[in-house]
Specification:
The protein is mainly alpha-helical. 75% of the residues lie in helices and 0% in strands.
C-alpha cells in the first residue's frame, strides 16, 4: 500500500479549528467580493502589498534557518570533547 501525504491546503484545514476555518473562509470571500470589481490600480496595490508581506516572511525564514545552521556549526566547533563524551555516552 502506498501512502501519500495530503495536499498542504487540506492538511492545514484538517488541523485547524472549524471556527478559524470559517473566519478564513469569510475573509477570503470578502476579499474576492471587494476586488472583483475594483480598479486595476487598486488590485495592483494589493498585489504589491502581498508581495512585500511574503518577501518579509521569506527573509525571516531564511534568517532563522541560517541562525540554526550557524549555531549547529559553532556547537560542533566549540565542543572540545569527542562526540561520545559530549553526548554523555562515555564507556570508561
Amino acid at each position: 500500500m502506498e501512502y501519500r501525504l495530503p495536499p498542504t491546503a487540506t492538511k492545514t484545514r484538517t488541523h485547524t479549528s472549524p471556527q478559524v476555518n470559517r473566519k478564513i473562509d469569510f475573509k477570503t470571500k470578502s476579499n474576492i467580493s471587494r476586488y472583483i470589481n475594483a480598479e486595476e490600480d487598486q488590485i495592483a496595490k494589493r498585489i504589491d502589498s502581498l508581495d512585500r508581506e511574503w518577501d518579509t516572511e521569506r527573509v525571516l525564514e531564511t534568517n532563522f534557518a541560517a541562525l540554526i545552521t550557524l549555531s549547529t556549526i559553532l556547537g560542533f566547533a566549540v565542543t572540545k570533547l569527542p562526540p561520545a563524551k559530549a553526548g554523555g555516552f562515555e564507556t570508561d
